[in-house]
């Protein structure tokens, strides 16, 4: 009885005094839109909390670090789909639904199919036809394994019945650099990271991966419109805390982050980077993860694992 009372008091007291020290947001490697969004959120939370909120760039290892951190709200995670989808392709040391408490969905970003100009294709249909004639000869930049650029390409290959060669990188920056240099031929990067190179003519854009055309990539057809019916893939990011973090702290974080992402100035700044900001309830985010995992599990159960 005493132990239960102590645990209850800890939750209530933590919520009433939270935060009383520095809060750490663990996120992706430097240079990504996700990282920049985390820094802007950290700035807003610092102002709201009256306590410093810092960003800690750890990359994919940060997911495991967060899962093993104390469930007190002082270490949270801002990350993309590898948190809940990477286990479909390889063994990981965490379980998204067991080891984390969802806080809120944070952003939705379309991907764009881009090719190096040396690849002789100008449309999705031409890309699929060429890949069918030349299985295992077209290589694509994956960025981090399990990230959106990787998952979007694997979904495309599975639905189109083609075989592409994955070239993995530690982040989207090095992957885009090799694409620009012609070391790889194909990539499905987030819109905000690539539009400048498309406008300059250094890369050729074929389609966007959203279900509907997007103003973030004006004039481009969707993959479904361009010849692969039913295709849809977007980059999603959200905030997580270690499992068993007190519910009042989760609610406080969800509300504060939601207030920041709904700020008109903040939305406009992130739209310039190709990101559509959004928020959700903790339960709504958890349900989205369950639904997306179920939708994609069949597609990726036979995906080639990283050797």
How would you characterize the overall build of this protein?
By secondary structure, the protein is of the alpha/beta class. The protein is built from 12 helices and 11 strands. It folds into 2 domains: 2-109 and 236-300, D-Maltodextrin-Binding Protein, domain 2 (3-Layer(aba) Sandwich), CATH 3.40.190; 112-208, Periplasmic binding protein-like II (D-Maltodextrin-Binding Protein, domain 2, 3-Layer(aba) Sandwich), CATH 3.40.190. Helix content is 41%, strand content 19%. Strands 2-1-3-10-4-11 form a 6-stranded mixed sheet, with helices on both faces. Strands 7-6-8-5-9 form a 5-stranded mixed sheet, sandwiched between helices. Helix 1 (2-17) runs parallel beside helix 10 (247-261) and helix 2 (33-49) crosses helix 10 (247-261). The chain is globular and about 65 Å long.
Secondary-structure blueprint:
Elements: H1 2-17, E1 23-27, H2 33-49, E2 53-57, H3 61-67, E3 75-80, H4 82-85, H5 96-99, E4 100-110, E5 112-115, H6 124-133, E6 139-143, H7 148-160, E7 165-168, H8 172-180, E8 186-187, H9 195-199, E9 204-208, E10 234-242, H10 247-261, H11 264-271, E11 276-277, H12 282-300
Parallel strand pairs: 1-2, 1-3, 6-7, 6-8
Antiparallel strand pairs: 3-10, 4-10, 4-11, 5-8, 5-9
Helix pairs in contact: 1-10, 2-10
Q: State the total count of DSSP E strands.
A: 11
In the CATH hierarchy, the architecture of the largest domain is 3-Layer(aba) Sandwich
**CATH fold name of the largest domain, please?**
D-Maltodextrin-Binding Protein, domain 2
Question: Structural class, from secondary structure content?
Answer: alpha/beta
Helix coverage percent: 40-55%
CATH homologous superfamily caption of the largest domain:
Bordetella uptake gene, domain 1
* Uncertain stretches: 1-9
The major β-sheet equals: 6 strands, mixed
Number of domains: 2
The number of helical segments is 12
The end-to-end span amounts to 51 Å
CATH class of the largest domain: Alpha Beta
**Strand content range:** 15-25%
